[in-house]
């Protein structure tokens, strides 16, 4: 029994029944398939997280995001007072996470590929773009450049899904994706 | 030297006092027994406290109830993680280690006084961290990601606790040495002890990782260190945080084998295969730190792919092997007990009214189907983008740690009470339904949290209506339904958990004493003709048996696994392209 020493002293030479062997082989092969699935997706799949990353002082990132916002601001998002920014299609865009907002609101064009620069001014935050459900961790001091192509138009919410203190649940943001004609 | 060592051993052996177990005939070291009791009781107390916190969390996340204020919610959530994930489980595991060494090996426990030092350190550490959290200035979540800072005592308590647990692990290893030296058993250690050894080895890695990161973080909180790198913190912290869950897996798999052995007389189909599967855990499980860093900046894809897959899923292979050999061993034993009809008579006529067996089998099934499959999918590098930090994550780990580990620990308690505490389990009718209540409740919360996570709902979030946010956002209505159901099933799980605590405490305080006459009966209903100490003699895997039931079960498991895995790849392919 499992609570007693093995009955045969040389237990490592006992034969293994066929059923067990077959299952081990199946389980092993399944592991190999799952392993190569991830590698294959890097080669053929279109959803892979960028590994383009830079060290950056948080205040430098904040000032870059502010400069970016100033350049391309087209108005304010509703009554919120948050700047609405419409960068040129296919350009570099900045999104800052800080206590407790995602700033600014971006207006992107559907089908265009953007380089999204992402970082935090203070603590760790979690970028959670909904309802597409894309979730990326955001660190202070690290600039993460995602190459991203919005393929659906509409208004998308950004939630913070990394706990960041008392106002964590108020930390939201927004990305608007417009069709080329409307975006003009 | 040799003589004096032998003499010291002799003196130690004489100093130990034993009683004889009426069921197994094993010599039970009373010092070990006392330590097992103390650690098990501490575990149950922290389960009770942490369980109440868990209910409060679930009731707050239920939008229609929304019980606590936001500050209290984050405080209680921090305490919940701490008390159940760390204190309940590790205290119980230390008890398991002492049991699997001193008791199963028929030996005295190494350095029992040191065992009390370990216990005191763990208790003081646990209380210190709890007090720090309850004072309200350490609501940093169980993970305490820098640069968010808790009060110094939060970290200090964790460090003391870890040191205590490390001493416990050393005592376990010392006991193995003593037992071998004093020849208290023949041949190799039993499989259950081997599983406990696996847990112990992983615990060393885990606790060392914890020390490596928590000591500098503690010094940082005191102002002696100016900066802790956020990515490095996470990488090393999860060397503790995730690997400690692998201690749980090893421990509860060992307990599955233990309960199967005691209740139906199951023996490993093949010692070699089952031990090999544990060896896979030792070699590869620690890589899982990566599971929490798949959408993190600053780590290469190569590193992520290799680590998240435990080097080509070799640790998953270990679990899939146990997933076959545990039910296989039960089927083989039950067929020897005379249940040979059809594919499933062995399972139908298993002792379902024995809470130890019922809890064990439910733990096995729920851990495999809910926890195992979701864990592999969640831990797939690219798929993680759709799930990271959503409620899918707690959904997954409630399936592993609650329906898997906690339920297995509850189940084995129904054997520990008569064998170690020498008390008959009180309220046997309630005990009979307890594992089912808890399994349905905990299975429900796992499932509905995963459902909410699939809909994008964030974990660790007080208000999914975003009523105070500048930019409003609405989750789909179905997410609210999921969280409501989560709350309902949390209540059910709490009832099951409370029953467990009440039964255990009542049994210890007022239970009828177990004597030689009623010792076997006190272990609960078992298949007829079976006696624990004279169970089937020859090897399980002699090749003479067939296990059709087990093959059907694992086929169902495998098909579910493959389908769910590829369905998630399909969802991923519909996401906005990224690169």
Set down the secondary structure blueprint.
The complex is a heterodimer of chains A (184) and B (579).
Chain A: H1 18-44, E1 52-55, H2 58-72, E2 73-76, E3 83-85, E4 92-98, E5 101-103, E6 105-109, E7 114-120, E8 125-130, E9 134-138, E10 142-148, E11 154-160, E12 172-178, H3 180-183
Parallel strand pairs in A: 3-6, 4-7, 6-12
Antiparallel strand pairs in A: 1-10, 2-3, 4-5, 7-10, 8-9, 8-11, 11-12
Chain B: H1 2-15, E1 18-20, E2 27-29, H2 30-61, H3 70-103, H4 112-134, H5 152-181, H6 191-222, H7 230-241, H8 243-264, H9 271-284, H10 301-308, H11 310-336, H12 345-348, H13 355-378, H14 392-419, H15 428-454, H16 477-510, H17 548-573
Antiparallel strand pairs in B: 1-2
Helix pairs in contact in B: 2-3, 2-4, 2-16, 3-4, 3-5, 3-6, 3-8, 4-5, 5-6, 6-7, 6-8, 6-9, 8-11, 8-13, 8-14, 9-11, 10-11, 11-13, 11-17, 13-14, 13-15, 13-17, 14-15, 14-16, 15-16
Throw out a few tags for this protein.
heterodimer, A: 184 residues, alpha+beta, Immunoglobulin-like, 2 domains, seven-stranded mixed β-sheet, five-stranded mixed β-sheet, 3 helices, elongated, B: 579 residues, mainly alpha, Four Helix Bundle (Hemerythrin (Met), subunit A), two-stranded antiparallel ribbon, 17 helices, 68% helix, 1% strand, globular
Q: Roughly how many Å is the radius of gyration of chain B? A: 23 Å
Order of strands across the widest beta sheet of chain B?
1-2
What structural category do the secondary elements of chain B indicate? mainly alpha
**Could you name the CATH homologous superfamily of the largest domain in chain A?**
Cupredoxins -  blue copper proteins
Question: Could you characterize the architecture of this molecule?
Answer:
The complex is a heterodimer of chains A (184) and B (579). Chain A has 184 residues and is of the alpha+beta class. Chain A folds into 2 domains: 16-44; 52-183, Cupredoxins -  blue copper proteins (Immunoglobulin-like, Sandwich), CATH 2.60.40. Chain A has helices spanning 18-44, 58-72, 180-183, and strands spanning 52-55, 73-76, 83-85, 92-98, 101-103, 105-109, 114-120, 125-130, 134-138, 142-148, 154-160, 172-178. In chain A, the strands form 2 sheets. Chain A has a 7-stranded mixed beta sheet with strand order 2-3-6-12-11-8-9. Chain A has a 5-stranded mixed beta sheet with strand order 1-10-7-4-5, covered by helices on one side. Chain B is mainly α. Chain B has 3 domains: 26-189, Four Helix Bundle (Hemerythrin (Met), subunit A), CATH 1.20.120; 197-336, no CATH class; 350-516, no CATH class. Chain B is built from 17 helices and 2 strands. A two-stranded antiparallel ribbon of chain B has the order 1-2. In chain B, helix 10 packs parallel to helix 11 and helix 13 runs antiparallel to helix 14 (392-419). The longest helix of chain B is centred in the first third of the chain and has 34 residues, at 70-103. The relative contact order of chain B is 0.10. The chains are: A alpha+beta (184), B mainly alpha (579).
């Amino acid at each position: 029994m499992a609570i007693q020493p093995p009955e045969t002293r040389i237990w490592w030479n006992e034969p293994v029944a066929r059923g067990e062997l077959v299952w081990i082989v199946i389980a092993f092969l399944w592991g190999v398939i799952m392993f190569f699935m991830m590698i294959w997706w890097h080669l053929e799949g279109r959803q892979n997280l960028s590994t383009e990353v830079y060290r950056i002082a948080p205040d430098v990132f904040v000032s870059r995001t502010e400069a970016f916002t100033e350049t391309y601001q087209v108005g304010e998002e509703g009554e919120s007072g948050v700047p609405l920014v419409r960068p040129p299609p296919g350009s570099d865009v900045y999104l800052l996470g800080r206590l407790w907002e995602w700033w600014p609101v971006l207006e992107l064009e559907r089908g265009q590929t953007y380089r999204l620069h992402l970082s935090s001014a203070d603590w760790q935050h979690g970028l959670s773009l909904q309802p597409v459900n894309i979730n990326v961790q955001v660190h202070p001091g690290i600039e993460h450049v995602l190459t991203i192509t919005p393929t659906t138009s509409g208004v998308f919410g950004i939630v913070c899904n990394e706990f960041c203190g008392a106002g964590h649940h108020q930390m939201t943001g927004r990305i608007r994706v417009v069709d080329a004609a409307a975006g003009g | 030297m040799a003589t004096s060592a032998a003499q010291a051993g002799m003196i130690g052996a004489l100093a130990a006092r034993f009683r004889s177990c009426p069921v197994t005939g094993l010599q039970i070291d009373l010092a070990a027994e006392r330590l097992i009791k103390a650690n098990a009781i501490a575990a149950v107390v922290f389960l009770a406290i942490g369980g109440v916190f868990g209910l409060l969390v679930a009731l707050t996340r239920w939008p229609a109830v929304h019980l606590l204020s936001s500050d209290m919610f984050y405080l209680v959530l921090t305490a919940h993680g701490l008390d159940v994930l760390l204190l309940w489980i590790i205290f119980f595991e230390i008890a398991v280690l002492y049991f699997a060494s001193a008791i199963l090996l028929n030996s005295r426990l190494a350095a029992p006084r040191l065992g009390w030092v370990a216990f005191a350190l763990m208790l003081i550490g646990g209380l210190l961290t709890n007090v720090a959290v309850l004072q309200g200035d350490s609501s940093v979540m169980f993970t305490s990601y820098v640069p968010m800072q808790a009060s110094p005592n939060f970290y200090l308590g964790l460090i003391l606790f870890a040191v205590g647990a490390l001493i416990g692990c050393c005592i376990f290893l010392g006991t193995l040495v003593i037992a071998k030296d004093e020849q208290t058993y023949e041949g190799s250690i039993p499989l259950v002890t081997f599983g406990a050894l696996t847990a112990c080895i992983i615990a060393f890695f885990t606790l060392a990782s914890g020390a490596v990161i928590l000591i500098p973080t503690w010094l940082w909180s005191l102002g002696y260190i100016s900066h802790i790198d956020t990515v490095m913190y996470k990488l090393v912290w999860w060397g503790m945080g995730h690997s400690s869950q692998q201690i749980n897996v090893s421990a509860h798999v060992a307990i599955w084998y233990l309960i199967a052995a005691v209740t139906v007389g199951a023996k490993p189909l093949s010692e070699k295969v089952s031990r090999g599967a544990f060896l896979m855990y030792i070699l590869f499980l620690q890589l899982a730190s990566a599971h929490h860093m798949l959408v993190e900046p600053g780590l290469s894809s190569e590193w992520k792919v290799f680590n998240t897959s435990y080097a080509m899923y070799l640790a998953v292979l270990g679990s899939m092997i146990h997933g076959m050999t545990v039910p296989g061993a039960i089927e083989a034993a039950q067929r020897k007990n005379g249940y040979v009809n059809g594919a499933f008579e062995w399972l139908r006529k298993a002792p379902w009214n024995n809470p130890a067996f019922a809890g064990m089998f439910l733990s096995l099934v729920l851990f495999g189907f809910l926890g195992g499959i979701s864990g592999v999918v969640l831990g797939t590098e690219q798929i993680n983008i759709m799930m990271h930090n959503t409620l899918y994550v707690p959904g997954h780990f409630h399936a592993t740690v609650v329906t898997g580990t906690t339920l297995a620990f509850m189940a084995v308690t129904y054997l520990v009470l008569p064998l170690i505490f020498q008390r008959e389990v009180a309220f046997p009718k309630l005990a009979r339904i307890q594992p089912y209540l808890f399994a349905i409740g905990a299975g429900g919360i796992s499932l509905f949290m995963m459902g909410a996570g699939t809909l994008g709902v964030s974990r660790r979030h007080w208000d999914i209506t975003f009523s105070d946010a500048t930019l409003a956002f609405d989750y789909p209505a179905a997410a609210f339904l999921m969280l409501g159901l989560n709350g309902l099933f949390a209540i059910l799980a709490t009832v099951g958990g409370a029953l467990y605590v009440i039964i255990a405490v009542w049994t210890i305080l007022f239970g009828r004493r177990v004597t030689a006459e009623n010792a076997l009966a006190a272990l609960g209903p078992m298949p007829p003709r079976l006696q624990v100490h004279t169970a089937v003699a020859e090897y399980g895997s002699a090749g003479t048996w067939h296990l059709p039931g087990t093959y059907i079960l694992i086929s169902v498991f495998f098909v579910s696994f493959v389908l769910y895995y590829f369905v998630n790849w399909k969802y991923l392919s519909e996401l906005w392209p990224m690169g």
